[in-house]
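Changelog entry

Holo records now carry the ligand SMILES as an explicit input line rather than a separate metadata file. Below, a converted record for NPW, shown in the new format.
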Amino acid sequence: MLLSWTSAQVRAAEAPLLADGVPLMQRASFALAGAVARVLRERRGRVVGGSVVLLVGPGNNGGDALHAGAYLRARGADVVALAVAPRVHDEGRAALEAAGSRVVVVDEDGVAAAAARAAGADVVLDGILGIGARPGGLTGVAGALVARLSARDDERGPVVVAVDTPSGIGVDDGSATGTVLRADRTVTFGAAKPGLLLPPAARLAGELEVVDIGLDLPGRPAIARLEGHDAAALWPVPGPAAHKYSRGVVGVVAGARRYPGAAVLATSAAVLAGVGMVRYLGDVADLVVARRPEVVAGPGHVQAWVFGPGVSPEDAAQRRRIEHAFDGVLHRAEPAVVDAGALELLPPRVPAHVVLTPHAGELARLLTARGHRVDREHVEAHPLRHARLAHELTGATVLVKGHVTLVVGPDGAAYAQSDAPAWLATAGAGDVLAGLLGAMLAGRAADVADDPSLAAALAAAAALVHGRAARTANPGGPVTARAVALALPETVAALLGADASRPTVGWTAGSTARATTGPTATAPTTGPTTRSADGPGRGGRMGR
Ligand SMILES: NC(=O)C1=CN([C@@H]2O[C@H](COP(=O)(O)OP(=O)(O)OC[C@H]3O[C@@H](n4cnc5c(N)ncnc54)[C@H](OP(=O)(O)O)[C@@H]3O)[C@@H](O)[C@H]2O)[C@@H](O)CC1
Ligand SMILES: [K+]
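Structure line, unchanged by the conversion:
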């Protein structure tokens, strides 16, 4: 599990060490120089003679860049610092100059020349702002320089390495307004920061490398990202005595004569995810059973529900079925996925074992209907804030679909999953996710009843499996929703085969037998530290 802490938490963890004279900046900048040296070796075979431009702001973030520049100069790189503030970190400046490089202060007239110089480098190190950044992007000379650099579309342009965070993102809230330099790689210190995981800023961070500088991070992390072994540990794996009812039955209320595909996709995904049984309720049972003969049409006992794919709230028959089924959700603690058309049928308050799965537009409509007028663009700019608002207003666990999928649940639980390729933004993909999540909730319904916060972890795990299934279906290319559903058995097998025996950690103390519900500060502490902030996992774990 990749965990992130806010800038205030990181500062609090730094304070006692700094008071004891622990050289945190040296640790950070030495590791940063190592990361840049690796980029230089990848790009040109060696460090010696590689050209590195440091963009240096007024604070300690610039200090990191200057010290890293001094280490790189000592290793033979050609380093120049472009200061975008009149004053930069004194010791860092002295170290760089002692190593034989210069600090050039850029003023308004010098922006064009500075941008050209940076554009010609092998590596640009963005040390303008870190956790001291006020959100809203870069302004003044820094903004003008970064805007010029960003406007260039040069294939052989420099590799941009962000120091701690891409400068100007909302470090704690993931906002990305104004001018920010998109990084190919972010080397972050002590722990990941929420803005490196959260949309929309996460896409500006590139590959994420977490450097252990010895911080002891107390309290709860802000945002978590599940990795494969976490999802494997959450997966409902049948024991030897399992039968179809003990494995869970999911009831799917989906589809209409006009939208039969949604019913086929949602039921198919539930079947292929390996649930005990799928019951279908709706008007296209003939088509569903023709495509998926495993599905049982008609009512009966279920452990969990999927409501809404391909359902119009004006469809009186489907509406009645969903309203009737909500009775079991509210009074028998049956977990439910509420998707698409069913979002408009949501009762005023529901328990956290109800998982809403809107995209940004649907979330905007849900919030507007509940008195918080907001449009899709605003939700996309601040998805975490709006997902939290929806959770507060409804009580439900909320999964917001997107390039990075967000899940928020009770007790401040929040996950940001970036497992999906952009190709997964395709019709029907949401129906597959709903069916898949319904299967997981049915398989672990008793555990969810004991601990409703487990629903958020299961929703995050479903997002991970959904994204991986898309990659399995056609690595690097277009996928159809049907192909994603068909790839589920192979994806789950790979996940369980690779990772099932590995432990996970818990958000709350009340953990269930097989797996717990989210992160605490007892994060895994071993293993390599390189993770992708905005792409598929590559087998590392966050180090501290
Ligand atoms: N403490 C340590 O030993 C360690 C620290 N570490 C490193 O330090 C970084 C944090 O350093 P930091 O606290 O100095 O903040 P930093 O991000 O450099 O910026 C502050 C300056 O920027 C200014 N400013 C802010 N927003 C602005 C805006 N939008 N536009 C323009 N200016 C803006 C702000 O001005 P002010 O708000 O004061 O007016 C202030 O002058 C951290 O990310 C990590 O890299 C690591 O080495 C580990 C050990
Ligand atoms: K930075």
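Spot-checked after migration. Residues 14, 18, 24-25, 28, 57-62, 64, 129-134, 136, 139, 163-164, 189 surround NPW (ligand 1) (CB under 6 Å). The first helix runs from residue 7 to 19.
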